[in-house]
Structure formats: C-alpha cells, structure tokens
Amino acid sequence: MNETGNNPYSPPAAVVEDASYDNDEGTFIPGGRSVPAGNGAGWLAGGWEQFTQQPWRWIGLTLLFVVLYLVTIIPYVKFAMYVVMPVITGGIVLACDRQRSTGKLKIGDLFSGFQNRTGPLLTVGALYVGLMILALIPVVLVVGLNVVVAAMSGSPHPGAGMVMPGIASILIGGGISFVLYIMLCMAMWFAPALVVLQEMSAAHAMKTSFAGCAKNILPGLIYVLVLIAAAIVATIPIGLGWFALVPTMFASVYAAYRDVYIAH
Fold first, then answer.
1. How far are the Cα atoms of 64, 160, 204 from residue 193, in angstroms, in the given order?
2. pTM value?
3. Under a CB-based contact definition with an 8 Å cutoff, are residues 170 and 142 in contact?
C-alpha cells in the first residue's frame, strides 16, 4: 500500500513522453495498403523533414553514397555494384529508422546493411540483375531479328516496306521491355526496407514490394511528378539544390514504406 500505483489517495501521475521523435513502431500490414493519391507528395515531405533534422550528416552520408556509386564507372564492376546496392539501400533505411526512433543519425549508418540481413539483401540485388536481363530480352530479340532480316534482304539499305515493320516491331519490343522494367522497379522499391525491418526473405520482400506499389499507382505517379519538379528547381542554383534533394529522396522511400506498410 506504500507504492504510489496502489495508493488511492496519491495524486495522479502524469505520463511524460518525448514529443520530439515518433517511437511508435505501429503494426505491419502484409501486402501494404492503398493510400490517398496526395500522400505521394507527402512522402517527399516526410523525407524533407528527416533531412532538415540532421542536414549536414545527411549531406555527408549522401556524398559517401555518391563516391561508392562512382565505382560503377569501372568496367565489370557495374553489375557487382547492382548486386551490392540493396545492401547500401538497406543501410539508408536503417539510418532513417534509427533517426525516427532516436533522433540520431550517423554517416557510418550507410554501411549498417553489411551488418544486418546482408545475405537476403545481396540476394535481392542478384535477383534484380537477373530479372533486369530478362526484361531486356524482348527488345534485344526484336532488334536482332530485324538485323537478320535486313542482312537476308541482300541490301544494307532495306526498303521502306521493310523499315517500317522493323520500327514498329522495335517499338513493340521496347514497350514490352519498358513495362517489365517498371514492374521490376516496383518489386525493388520497398524490398530493402522489408528485408531489414521485417526480416523477410528476398523473394517475399520483392513480392510484397510489388503488391504495395500496385496498390498505390496514383500516389506513386504524384510522387514522381513532384520529384521531377523538385529536380528542376534543385538544378537552377548551379545544381546546389541536389545536396538537399538527394537525401530527401533517400528518406522519402522510408516515409513511403511507413505510410504503406505500417498502421498506427
């Protein structure tokens, strides 16, 4: 009876919470949910909010990311970097999640994906490379067939009757490859976040990412349009705005993940 919680005559105790950061983990929604179209712009707003809390550290993290990305200009390294990129993206997601829950961000968080769920993240990257090659097959086949037909015609300059069908088939093949690549991007967008935060397998994460994106085509379109407008504005002052836009874009993916997959 001496404890405050059991004393009916003690004054009510106020619960004091830190209002600076959102520590609510929320409830995961398998497959994600549909959100209003305007939320697409809100994802970038959420990314901007995270950036402005730690702007210099975000800029430092982004510059380190750019240095790593420049390695892709080395021959034979590009595909390896495509495999590794989900690990780095997973690190960015973990950095966002840590900042949301603690208010702290470290530049070294970029590499936290190499310490958390590295295997599944690398598998995501390997699947991306393999599926990207498959997505290119339609346009490669069409172009190859047109080259063969032109060669069999006996003239290096096929007539209009052959050129027009060739152009039409290339457009069709290119259109199929483009659609397949967009579908691949949908499977990839949330996959690193789902791997590191929900401990999903690579295949399950990509399937869940695709489902979440498919339910939010309009918000995704609004997101892309606002991002394009922001990119134009960021380019005007000698491109200096990109120092803010790139980290905002990084954090916006995390904001979108929270909006689509986490219920409060």
1. 20, 51, 12
2. 0.81
3. yes
